[in-house]
UniProtKB/TrEMBL annotation:
Name of the protein in its database record: Bifunctional protein PyrR
Record's subunit section: Homodimer and homohexamer; in equilibrium.
Gene behind this protein: pyrR
Cited PANTHER family: BIFUNCTIONAL PROTEIN PYRR
Coiled coil: none
Membrane-spanning residues: none
Similarity section: Belongs to the purine/pyrimidine phosphoribosyltransferase family. PyrR subfamily.
Keywords noted in UniProt: Glycosyltransferase, RNA-binding, Transcription, Transcription regulation, Transcription termination, Transferase
Tagged with keyword Glycosyltransferase: yes
Length: 175
């Protein structure tokens, strides 16, 4: 199987920098701003955005992770939703501006699940969506507010994001 590199390490770094600036413009700074990354790669991208925003604004934005496993509609449900929070963050996100971060936006089902996970326990003032790659083929009416790169793909193609934190390389490839 051949792979075509769409974004290399430098392109990913530039994209994270641009998205950080766009989020700051959207929110008019860091006040009431929360970043929540969808496990696994979205969480690492959220940390990178947090670091970039800190270097720009010299303020630390609270950042956490979302586990959407129990909210997915494409897996057989083994139990009802537990009372355990599905996101991990050290601050209350009610009445805050929450930006959900994912690596690839595809059908929209992961994002729908992340919205359910957040809204079950909190009522943010506003929720935005940032994604490194938007590959199209939406099944739900979901659109990202911040997109690193739009990559038109065929359904049979796979878009893979590799991040140094877990993959020992930084790249976005189509296989």
């Amino acid at each position: 199987m051949s792979e075509r590199v769409i974004m290399d390490e430098a392109a990913i770094q530039r994209t994270v920098t641009r998205i950080a600036h766009e989020i700051l413009e959207y929110n008019r700074g860091t006040d009431n701003l929360i970043l929540l990354g969808i496990k696994t790669r979205g969480a690492f991208l959220a940390r990178r955005l947090q670091q970039k925003i800190e270097s720009i604004e010299e303020k630390v934005v609270p950042t956490g992770t979302i586990d959407i496993t129990q909210f997915r509609d494409d897996l057989e449900q083994t139990s009802n939703h537990s009372n355990e929070k599905t996101y991990e963050i050290d601050v209350n996100i009610t009445n805050q501006v929450v930006i959900i971060i994912d690596d690839v936006l595809y059908t929209g089902r992961t994002v729908r699940a992340s919205l359910d996970a957040v809204l079950q326990y909190a009522r943010p003032k506003k929720i935005g969506l940032a994604t490194l790659v938007d590959r199209g083929h939406r099944e739900l009416p979901i659109r990202a507010d911040f997109v690193g790169k739009n990559i038109p793909t065929a359904r049979e193609e796979a878009v893979s994001v590799f991040l140094d934190e877990i993959d020992s390389r930084n790249a976005v490839v189509i296989e």
